[in-house]
Design goal:
318 residues, alpha/beta, Malonyl-Coenzyme A Acyl Carrier Protein, domain 2, Alpha-Beta Plaits, 2 domains, five-stranded parallel sheet, four-stranded antiparallel sheet, 9 strands
């Protein structure tokens, strides 16, 4: 069995996430406290007190990163170790923390700034995203290219799985692309509740600010292979991390390719680490032959421990 950890992205957050883990685990609680100290505000209150700020990008990003890292530390304490890691968009920072390339303290402060810069790059209402289901990749790309000639920028921004691609861009362009794609047989298009056109060139101003900030951070050697969103390939060297993160904020996320690469490298058991279970669903649609778990609360944590023990004993009762 070869385990890969995959880390949640923005949009997976919810009020009260991790509360039972916080109550049950000193490692989890200590990670929350570490985040609060680094950021200078109360992460515990943000997570557990129905705070509306949890859905504001500059607070969402450190919150999801903190929860993912806290669960990662719990898993390692329990002896569950990944051989390879990846994360969806924001989750790539959790993966880099897990690899040892980036300290948690630096990462949690960095992603708060990243979130703020992403929000500032495109004023609210001027950008949008929509998930497109059951439409061929090439049709989506051609439609976006055609719409961009007349209505503003829109691109395929998240290649999540074979039957789901997210388009992103200027609001009018996304609306026009949505109208055209809804004419495709069996298609379903759903507007996402996000504050901007993430993973498009419209985020270039945020990428410039991120680049300047990354110059102040020293990356360490990766102790685990990290698969990058920008091309679905393993990040080859420590020196490649910074340019990868700069490009990632304004470029499409090739999540399907990330998962395929992990499988090609021998990963047969995926564990989604962090809030939600969207990535678990994506992996199952990409390859039904792998085993997939998610850990976001005490029950899923305990289930994973039990199931992995069964698998190791040769009794995979899923």
């Amino acid at each position: 069995m070869k385990i890969g950890f995959i880390y949640s992205g923005q949009g997976a957050q919810y009020h009260g996430m991790g509360k039972d883990l916080f109550d049950a685990s000193d490692v989890f609680a200590d990670t929350i406290a570490e985040a609060s100290t680094a950021l200078g505000w109360d992460m515990q209150a943000l997570l557990f007190n129905e705070d509306s700020a949890l859905n504001e990008t500059e607070f969402t990003q450190p919150a999801v990163l903190t929860m993912s890292t806290a669960i990662d530390r719990m898993l390692r304490q329990a002896g569950i170790l990944p051989s390879m890691v990846a994360g969806l968009s924001l989750g790539e920072y959790s993966a880099l923390v897990a690899s040892g390339a980036l300290s948690f303290e630096e990462a949690v402060c960095l992603v708060q700034k990243r979130g703020r810069w992403m929000t500032e790059a495109v004023p609210s209402g001027q950008g949008a995203m929509a998930a497109v289901m059951n439409v061929d990749r090439q049709i989506i790309e051609v439609t976006c290219e055609a719409v961009s000639q007349t209505h503003g920028l829109v691109i395929a921004a998240n290649y999540n799985m074979p039957a789901q691609i997210v388009i992103s861009g200027e609001t009018a362009a996304v609306e026009e692309a949505q109208a055209r794609l809804e004419l495709e047989p069996k298609s379903k298009v759903v507007r996402l509740k996000v504050s901007g056109p993430f993973h498009t060139p419209l985020l270039a101003p945020a990428a410039e600010k991120l680049a300047a900030e990354l110059e102040t951070i020293e990356m360490s050697e990766m102790t685990l292979p990290v698969v990058s969103n920008i091309n679905g390939q393993v990040i080859g060297t420590t020196e490649a991390i910074v340019p990868t993160l700069i490009e990632q904020i304004k470029s499409p996320v090739y999540w399907e390719e990330c998962v395929q690469t992990m499988i090609e490298k021998g990963v047969d058991t995926f564990v989604e680490v962090g809030p939600g279970k969207a990535l678990r669903g994506f992996v199952k649609k990409i390859n039904r032959n792998v085993t997939v778990f998610n850990v976001e609360n005490l029950s899923t944590f305990e289930k994973l421990i039990s199931k992995l023990k069964e698998l190791e004993e040769g009794n995979p009762n899923e």
